[in-house]
Every structure is written in structure tokens, then in C-alpha cells.
């Protein structure tokens, strides 16, 4: 097989492009045959282990929720959040929204829920006034 492929590729160097097409088809066929011969049940072949998945959620950043819409930022009402508010429905629309946090999967948690989760995960790095039952972004970073 190698000799035949070598002759065909040499023919291409001499301007015989049919040889290149034949060689390409044979390579594709050989690759397909090799792929079929390797199966999960083949001797010595083990499927890769599944990637680890974080089971426990953790707090990622500050978030605000209003009528199903969530915006995020490092801190509540920081410049990034305000720019998102302006770009969406406007600052006035976001008045009275619920402040909270999101986890790594994008789930919104109230300040109280987030405090319990952050405490359980050891994410609270520092204390600030009034943070005994509610999480503040200052607790995290």
C-alpha cells in the first residue's frame, strides 16, 4: 500500500494529478477503516474519565433581579451595573429591584440565600457592618 501511495505521489510531482486524487481517496478510506477498528470495547482502550463537575454552587458576583431580568457586576450599583441598567430599560426601571448574587450556573440568590451559601463554602473573607444574615460583595473580595 505504501509503495502504491508513494508511486502516486511521485506521479503528482510529474504532473499526474489523477494519482493525487487516488492517493487522497485511499488515505481517507484507510483513516475510516482505522477509526472503525478502534472501539470503546477494543482491548487496551479505556474511555477517558468524565470531567469533574462542581456539585456545590458558589457565589460568583453581585446581581440584581427585576421582572425576570438579571444584571451583574462586581458590586451592586457599580459603574458596570449602571451601564447595563441604562442600556436596557433605564435606571428608573431598575429602582426597587431585588439585590442578590449569582452562582457559577447563573442562578440568582437573594442576599440571605447567598450569605448561607458563601458561609458554607468558606467564601466570606471579611466582615462588614450589618452582614450577619445578608451577604455583601465586600464580604467576598
Total number of β-strand segments? 4
Count of discrete structural domains? 2
How many individual helices?
5
Helix content: 40-55%
Summarize the structure in words:
- The protein is α+β, with helices and mostly antiparallel strands and 141 residues long.
- It has 2 domains: 2-37; 59-140, no CATH class.
- 40% of the residues lie in helices and 16% in strands.
- It has a 4-stranded antiparallel β-sheet with strand order 2-1-3-4.
- Strand 1 (59-66) and strand 2 form a beta hairpin.
- Helix 1 packs antiparallel against helix 2.
- The longest helix is centred in the N-terminal third of the chain and has 21 residues, at 17-37.
- The termini are far apart.
- The relative contact order is 0.11.
- The model has no long low-confidence stretch (mean pLDDT 78).
Which key terms come to mind for this protein?
four-stranded antiparallel β-sheet; alpha+beta; 40% helix; 2 domains; 4 strands
List the helices and strands and how they pair.
Layout: H1 2-13, H2 17-37, E1 59-66, E2 69-73, H3 79-87, E3 98-103, E4 108-110, H4 111-121, H5 137-140
Antiparallel strand pairs: 1-2, 1-3, 3-4
Short characterization:
It contains five helices and four strands, in the order ααββαββαα.
